[in-house]
Amino acid sequence: QSVLTQPPSVSGAPGQRVTISCTGSSSNIGAGYDVHWYQQLPGTAPKLLIYDNTNRPSGVPDRFSGSKSGTSASLAITGLQAEDEADYYCQSHDSSLSGVVFGGGTKLTVL
Amino acid sequence: QVQLVESGGGVVQPGRSLRLSCAASGFTFSNYAMHWVRQAPGKGLEWVAGISYDGNNKYYADSVKGRFTISGDNSKNTLYLQMNSLRAEDTATYYCARDLLAFRYSSGLDPWGQGTLVTVSS
Predict the structure, then answer these.
(1) What is the chain A residue with the closest CA to B114?
(2) Strand bridging mode A36-40 / B109-112
(3) CB neighbourhood size of B2 (10 A)
(4) What pLDDT was estimated at residue B89?
(5) Beta bridge partners of residue B116, listed in sequence order
(6) What pLDDT digit, counting tens, does each position of B8-23 carry?
(7) Are B34 and B22 in contact, with CB atoms under 8 Å apart?
(8) Which of residues 19-58 of A touch B (CB under 8 A)?
């Protein structure tokens, strides 16, 4: 059971908007720790999509955006494309565990 | 360009030890926190261990605490993970990853290495 909770799967048609939620608690997201998001394409290493809740590293399209409120965070993907089909993970820090924590991952299917 | 290359994976018997290495290039190794993250076959990401940029602070997941040790060698630009008392549940691809921002800890992990597979089996 992951410390951060994500839906196992989401789906959307090309061009649509999807969101992926990441729910934590008062010892991680709710404590003010930043949330980061990763995309993992099949057979490859994860890639950082969003850091510090809302920031995109250089090269990440602005179709990807992040937000955070209270004990939760969300990743939004607009203008869905076939190449967005991948696993997505949220990550934060947990004070009770004194370590980095990941969500269980969400598989995005582009219909 | 910034690059991380892991090595040292393989097949090992339960109870034995293995040391993973991560060779870093393209950035000032001593300015960045580093991490090991693993992924069991068909499963999600699990953070294993992290070390602060100055090497003074080391953190471990409960699942490996007391068995694994993270360390870094600034003269060789290399990160290590010493894994002792290995168990079947340690079977996974192990990735090393750098903190995105210098002089911070857990600012987001980027880049990642390609991973090295560790299989614990008799």
Answers:
(1) A45
(2) unpaired
(3) 11
(4) 97
(5) B94
(6) 999 999 999 999 999 9
(7) yes
(8) 33-34, 36, 38, 40, 45-48, 50-52, 57
